[in-house]
Specification:
heterodimer; A: alpha/beta; 15% strand; B: alpha/beta; Aconitase, domain 3; Aconitase, Domain 2; 5-stranded parallel sheet; 29% helix; globular; amino-acid biosynthesis (chain A)
């Protein structure tokens, strides 16, 4: 996993609530191995017509939003299916951060484990940020995981919280498996206690 | 202060707790399916072994065809490849996998409980969001992503932050003709798909206690559609009786099961109460499970939306679903019907649908895919297959089938399908497909009418 410390990037507004992971990553692409094609799978059925042509009316296709690395989304982003491929698709599209008022639980966890920073902020703040990046295409936002602060275009700062353990892993680019394996004696002891009844 | 059912199971599985509340939980049962190939790739890339293959069980369901039970005969080479990889990963890691040709194959959330592999008090995980289903047996069960699947394979543990605890009480008796599916849709219509976010729901109340285990499985299955990480029901005599005699269940109930309930003075972070006596057969009209109304009602009009966010969402839903708003649900004409999925493809579901279909002819095509190969055989032993076939339905093999449409068949663009599955998301059953979620009895009645109706 790539480490995440700080990011200043163009943000794209996606003014939709309850975006489910089926929309982010349609099921029919999930049989494919993870490779660069995942960039075209992300939001595929909204970005492309049935014939494969790019739909210019979909906001994430429009320049400069098509080069955004931050997505300012609606509430309950990433609900539904546990498919981690939804995170792979967003990363392949170039996103490194999603800002929303709330996230699907499993999506939130999947994002953290893959270096896609989910930033939870109050709904009114998210709505203002989305309006700001929609009003001035190309607007950048800054997120700093070290301080857990998002800086808006007007200079205002907004504190967000990433659970401590996940934050440590993300800052250092480490995955949890390596860290948990160091707890092998504790896991083995738990199993022995259970077996002894 | 007393403890909740959730806390009792959680506490019994903490390997290590951190100061920030995060806990490393031991996993008693880990299920996986064909889609878990990313996780096995991660393990391989790091040269790690599966720590407890004996606690790990595979079920081939997502890509299982509804016709044929032989992997080499799967026509689509990509789908065949996925199934072969699943079978190879299981063999290479000495894991018992219920493969396509296995007589006990089935959808993991149907076949796992059916085998007695999920027991009260267990922690259960699977790389599938509908793992919440298993909570119906009094287990703490939740879906996880591929990285977490790899973590569990390697360590038999998972890091979790404690969720909010929500109790959902259904007071009173459920009227005849209403089902657990209708309870779930009524709840989600009330609290929304974000209503349970970050939470664990315990289902309680007279109407829940009166449900069979199979109906409880349906209710807990849909907890994820309310946004909750899991749903659960305290195990009781009904649970113990249902488990008795299953291949992996103990010969006698474990005495510890009798302590698995929320103490009278246990505190929940929030409580929701529904009047079960008022629940009628439900169906969704839009593209979110919360967009549900009684089948006797009508599609809402845009000017009835409670707020601007909902108004915008409803406009998109109506447009996608090809509805104007305001029309009676019973006037919505269907193109096809799907009876199946981890929500509603158990033997009781098939019985309820067959009871409606007996002696009738379908107005629109219907696919029936039993929840497991065992369910299929049990249904055939009872003659249910004949009722479905004589009505004109396709009676096929067990698969996730048209719930997730990964097996090679989809609902066509613009086609309208009444479905007993769990998600009516845009594109879920196929690009441009229009899904209406209903119970098995309502699905059968709708297939006969060719319109969205209940069996009442």
């Amino acid at each position: 996993m790539d480490a995440f410390t700080q990011l200043t990037a163009i943000a794209a507004p996606l003014d939709l609530a309850n975006v489910d992971t089926d929309q982010i990553m349609p099921a029919r692409f999930m049989r494919r191995p993870r490779d660069e094609r995942y960039a075209t799978y992300g939001f595929h059925d909204q970005r492309f017509t049935a014939e494969g042509a790019k739909r210019p009316d979909f906001i994430l296709n429009q320049p400069p939003y098509d080069t955004a690395a931050i997505l300012v989304a609606g509430r309950n982003f990433g609900v539904g299916s546990s498919r981690e491929a939804a995170v792979y698709a967003l990363l392949a599209m170039g996103y490194r951060c999603v800002v929303a008022a709330s996230f699907g639980d499993i999506f939130f966890s999947n994002a953290l484990k893959n270096g896609l920073l989910p930033v939870r902020l109050p709904e009114s703040t998210v709505n203002e940020l989305r309006a700001a990046v929609a009003a001035a295409p190309g607007t950048t936002l800054s997120v700093d995981l070290r301080t857990q602060i998002l800086t808006a275009p007007d200079g205002s700062t907004h504190e967000f919280v990433v659970p401590g353990f996940a934050r440590d892993c993300l800052l250092r680019g480490l995955d949890e498996i390596g860290l948990t394996l160091t707890l092998e004696p504790e896991i083995a002891a738990f199993e022995q206690r259970r077996a002894a009844g | 202060m007393g403890q909740t059912l959730f806390q009792k199971i959680w506490d019994a599985h903490v390997v290590q707790a951190r100061d920030d509340g995060l806990a490393l939980l031991y996993v008693d049962r880990h299920y996986f399916h064909e889609g878990s190939f990313h996780a096995f790739n991660m393990l391989k890339a790091r040269g790690l072994a599966v720590r407890r293959p004996d606690l790990t069980f595979g079920f081939g369901d997502h890509y299982a065809p509804t016709v044929g039970r032989s992997t080499p005969e799967v026509k689509d080479p990509e789908i065949r490849g996925i199934i072969e990889t699943f079978e190879e990963n299981a063999r290479a890691n000495r894991i018992r996998a219920f493969e396509l040709a296995d007589p006990d194959q089935g959808i993991v959330h149907v076949a796992g409980p059916e085998q007695g592999l999920t027991l009260p008090g267990m922690t259960v995980v699977c790389g599938d969001s509908h793992t919440s289903t298993h909570g119906a047996l009094g287990a703490l069960a939740f879906g996880i992503g591929a990285s977490e699947v790899a973590h569990v394979l390697a360590t038999q543990t998972i890091w979790q932050s404690p969720p909010k605890q929500i109790r959902c009480t259904f007071d009173g008796a459920l009227p005849a003709g209403s089902t657990a599916k209708d309870m779930a849709l009524a709840l989600i219509a009330r609290i929304g798909t974000g209503g349970g976010l970050g939470g664990a729901i315990e289902f309680a109340g007279v109407a829940v206690q009166a449900l069979s285990v199979e109906a409880r499985l349906t209710l807990c299955n849909m907890a994820i559609e309310a946004g909750a990480r899991t749903g659960m029901v305290a195990p009781d005599a009904v649970t113990a009786a249902w488990l008795k005699g299953r291949p992996y269940a103990p010969a006698q109930p474990d005495p510890a099961w009798s302590r698995l309930f929320s103490d009278l003075d246990a505190r929940f972070d929030s409580e929701v109460t529904l009047d079960a006596t008022k629940i009628r057969p439900m169906a969704t009209w839009g593209t979110s499970p919360e967009e549900a109304v009684p089948l006797s009602g009508r599609v809402p009009r845009l000017d009835e939306a409670p707020d601007e966010t909902r108004k915008k969402a409803w406009a998109r839903s109506l447009d996608y679903m090809g509805l104007r708003g305001g029309e009676a649900m019973a006037d919505v004409a269907l193109d096809r019907v799907f009876l199946g999925s981890c929500t509603n493809a158990r033997i009781e579901d098939l019985r309820e649908a067959a009871a409606v279909l007996r002696g009738k002819r379908l107005a629109v095509p219907m696919l029936v895919s039993p929840g497991s190969s065992r369910v299929k055989r049990a249904a055939e032993a009872e003659g249910l297959d004949r009722i479905f076939k004589e009505a004109g339905a396709r009676w096929e093999e067990s698969s996730c089938a048209l719930c997730v449409s990964m097996h090679g068949e989809t609902v066509g663009e613009g086609e309208r399908c009444a479905s007993t599955s769990n998600r009516n998301f845009a594109g879920r059953q196929g690009r441009g497909a229009r899904t209406h979620l209903v119970s098995p009895a309502s699905a059968a009645a709708s297939a006969v009418a060719g319109r969205l109706v209940s069996a009442l």
